Amino acid sequence: MTNTTMCGDEAQCIQSRSTTYCTCRRGFQKVPDKNSCQDVNECLRFGTCSQLCNNTKGSHVCSCAKNFMKTDNMCKAEGSEHQILYIADDNKIRSMYPFNPNSAYEPAFQGDENVRIDAMDIYVKGNKIYWTNWHTGRISYRELPASSAASTASNRNRRQIDGGVTHLNISGLKMPRGIAIDWVAGNIYWTDSGRDVIEVAQMKGENRKTLISGMIDEPHAIVVDPLRGTMYWSDWGNHPKIETAAMDGTLRETLVQDNIQWPTGLAVDYHNERLYWADAKLSVI
Fold first, then answer.
1. Strand 138-143 relative to strand 165-167: parallel, antiparallel, unpaired?
2. Cys staple from 221: which of 118, 178, 181, 213, with CB 3.0 to 4.6 Å?
3. If you write DSSP's letter for every residue of 235-285 in order, what string do you get?
């Protein structure tokens, strides 16, 4: 009997002076309570690949999603030098180029004393930035500037930054908190912690609909995954949790309810299918 026949294709034969035994080859693991080996699915281990992972027998293959390129085993977006990071701070929104070491914070929007930006999202296809203002109970948007204004912007340019704000005609909002853009269907989703609901409307506020109400205490952040038709939101009320549902409000279920206190921020890693959140009370991500 040959060593291959004795141990099988998934194992190798180890011989010593006193014994001979089989051990699983790299990429395989021993089946509990059985004298055999099975393939290890490396793709189940988070961090194996930067983005897409395809398990193969005894190994795996990493690849990048569309519009990403592989660099040093990492997937990086194409044209990263043109990407802009927008940051909300109280009543203003600033921008910067995260991959440019010489980039400075530049003003993109400056509101007056009535503006309190709680959350924002970008509608890239429509070249707009949306935000919730819990201070006034409004959802607003403005066109993104063609190019970010420099810190030495003239008064004329500064007036353009200050102006151009459109308030959506959505009545009855009490305390809009989180906001998320469905860039596929062209809808906006938001949480209202004053009325304890999650709602959706078209980009200008038309055809508004309440999706989630009841058994919800203090809804805060919300994110959507349009490619999979799923939304996620955080609730930091008396029974803090993170919930999910289909984007029409059906198939509601609780994802996280243990070791969570004040979940205030959510983000989706679309390619790795992971959900991240910040807990303001526990000071963790």
1. antiparallel
2. 178
3. E-SSS-EEEEEETTS-S-EEEE-SS-S-EEEEEEETTTTEEEEEETTTTB-
Query: Is residue 204 included in any domain, yes or no?
Result: yes
227 Cβ contact list (under 8 Å, min separation 6):
184, 270
The domain containing residue 183 runs over which residues?
Answer: 112-145+163-279
- H/E stretch holding 159 reads helix 155-162
Share of the chain above pLDDT 70, in %: 92
First-to-last alpha carbon distance for the chain, in angstroms, is 56
Closest residue by Cα to residue 236 from 274, 270, 191 = 191
Domain-located, residue 1: no
Q: Alpha-carbon distance 96 to 93, whole Å?
A: 10
Percent pLDDT > 90 in the chain is: 65
Q: How many domains does the chain have?
A: 1
Calculate the CA dihedral of residues 119, 122, 128, 129 and round it to 10 degrees. 20
Q: What is the pTM of this model?
A: 0.83
